[in-house]
Amino acid sequence: MTPITFSPIYNNNPEPNSSYSSPAPTRPTSITMAPNPRRIPPCFPLLSAHLFLLLLLPRLSSASPPNYHDALRKSLLFFEGQRSGRLPPDQRLRWRKDSALHDGASAGVDLTGGYYDAGDNVKFGFPMAFTTTLLAWSVIDFGRIMGSELGNAIKAVKWGTDYLLKATAHDGIVYVQVGDPLSDHNCWERPEDMDTLRTAYKIDANHPGSDVAGETAAALAAASIVFRSRDPAYSRLLLSRAIKVFEFADRHRGAYSSRLRHAVCPFYCDVNGYQDELLWGAAWLHKASRRRVYREYIVRNEVVLRAGDTINEFGWDNKHAGINVLLSKEVLMGRSSDLRSFQMNADGFICSILPGISNQIQYSPGGLIFKSGSSNMQHVTSFSFLLLAYSNYLSHANHAVTCPHTTASPALLKRLAKRQVDYILGDNPLGMSYMVGYGRRYPERIHHRGSSLPSVHAHPAHIACKEGSRYYLSPNPNPNILVGAVVGGPNSTDAFPDSRPFFQESEPTTYINAPLVGLLAYFAAHS
Where is the composition biased (Low complexity) (predicted)? Predict the structure, then answer.
């Protein structure tokens, strides 16, 4: 992709597999390095017993033990900072105001609401749907132990599903994005001020997008379980819409970035293919509807849709590990022997992530899961969520995972997941929390427009596109604290630049936080 000629360009590119080459960022005011960086080797597979133990031993730093409940509360508060549309009276993050109140008007539809995915002002449907699915899964598996935060978790799910219902309101059409990313990323504006193009992009029979439609169906189906007893009418609406959207995704197969490349790439290109989203959508419909037809679909299409591919990947673009863990629960409970291959794949994922067992997953010297690309924390939280979820399924079945040279017990998987969460909350070589507003030391210059610009209350006058540049380049901390935001995180040597231009490390995303909600709920209840 040829960079835009305007300067500066405020890049947002959380896609882990993108080949997009961004302009060199402005030199940060300071980069906090791990102690004695020259003595720390680069990121590598953990093949030694010493580093294996590093992930299982108690705390590395002298900081106080994590307050998981406080972190849970703040992780949910973050989603209120990402809201688009007209904000409700109970909005708690008060520096945010109404924004994008005419989204969809150019296409004659109402597309207000939903979430901004990261530090920009575009509403990308693919990661938003995945965020909603993972929030719903967090409530399904861990809602009963969320205590006073359950209501806020349900509100976070519903803010996503209310928008997805609007995006799928017309049969045979799914609106998958609002906002032109190139013009948006060429500006540094508050969402309340933005005057860039708010183009509404859609998929239909002639321009298919089985990936984003399959993920949307999964989100609606998963959320229908959340509301099944809480709001039966809303639950039925979500499920019926999920069925329609899945049928559309399956009937008109194709990747949405094939036709919408100019709008979605390099930001959220479908690199992995759409096949996994069809299986993912069917898996959630099977769980939500309890209809045999979806299990039969999964079994019939297991090979065709490449269920065994890349079993150690899970995120907004690749659902394979999530599919395997989700379907394994029924196998472990003795209900679906015809899905046993998915349990074998789930076991393979567990073995691939164990330190010292394979070289498929790498760890930093401080013990953080690390995958090349940007926004590494998305892998940390999504993998950790699967570790925890699968450990619970194994516990209920009195089962363990047999790997080369070791057996992975449910307790071991929980310790590995907890180690990752503790690293995020400050138990790391820098002693820094990577959740904004949590702990004594956390990122202060995050790559986020609304957080880094003066609030409307503090600066009522409009701040135009390029007028925000001085705030983007400022060495000062962000004036508005985006409480609960988890940033992309440190690099492979545990070093972290607290600087806006380093968006790979300093930008938060909704799909980093979504799986963390379930993790924090569990450890808050079992600390």
Answer: 7-24
Sort 175 into a burial class: Cβ within 10 Å, 0-12 / 13-18 / 19+: buried
Cα separations in angstroms, 300 against 53, 217, 253, 446 = 42, 19, 17, 46
Report which of residues 187 and 9 the model is more confident about. 187
Q: How far apart are CA 491 and CA 355, in angstroms?
A: 18
Helices (H), 302-409: 320-332, 340-353, 377-396
DSSP 416: H
Write the DSSP string, 431-470: ---SBTTSSSS--SS-S-HHHHSPPTTT--S---TGGGHH
Residues annotated as catalytic are: 447, 498, 507
* CA-based R_g, the chain, Å: 22
Q: Given the structure tokens 């998929």, which residue do they identify?
A: 203
Query: The pTM is what?
Result: 0.91
Whether the Cβ atoms of residue 320 and residue 345 lie closer than 8 Å to each other: yes
Q: Residue 99: which H helix or E strand, with range?
A: none
Q: How confident is the model at residue 20 (pLDDT cuts 50, 70, 90)?
A: very low
> Which of 380, 398, 400, 267 lies closest to 315, judged by CA?
380
Nearest by Cα to 433 from 362, 501, 520: 520
- Report d(CA 134, CA 24) in Å as an integer: 33
270 Cβ neighbours under 8 A, 6+ residues apart: 126, 211, 212, 255, 256, 257, 317
CA–CA gap between residue 479 and residue 459 (Å, rounded) = 11
Q: How far apart are the first and last CA of the chain?
A: 48
Contact between 416 and 387 (Cβ < 8 Å): yes
Phi, psi of 503, deg, nearest 5: -65, -30
Is the distance from CB of 336 to CB of 330 less than 8 angstroms? yes
Q: Encoding tokens for residue 245?
A: 């959207």
Q: Which residues pair with 51 in a beta bridge?
A: none
pLDDT digits (tens, 9 = 90+) for 108-118: 999 999 999 99
How many angstroms separate the CA atoms of 351 and 361, rounded?
Answer: 10
pLDDT in tens, 435-476: 999 999 999 999 999 999 999 999 999 999 999 999 999 999
- Whole-number Å distance between alpha carbons of 440 and 436: 10
Q: Do 254 and 176 meet the contact criterion of CB atoms below 8 Å apart?
A: no
**Single-letter code of the amino acid located at 367:** G
Helix (H, G, I), strand (E, B) or coil at 216: helix
Q: Cα separation of 485 and 97, whole Å?
A: 18
- Strands 369-370 and 362-363 come out as antiparallel
Q: How many angstroms separate the CA atoms of 430 and 514, rounded?
A: 25
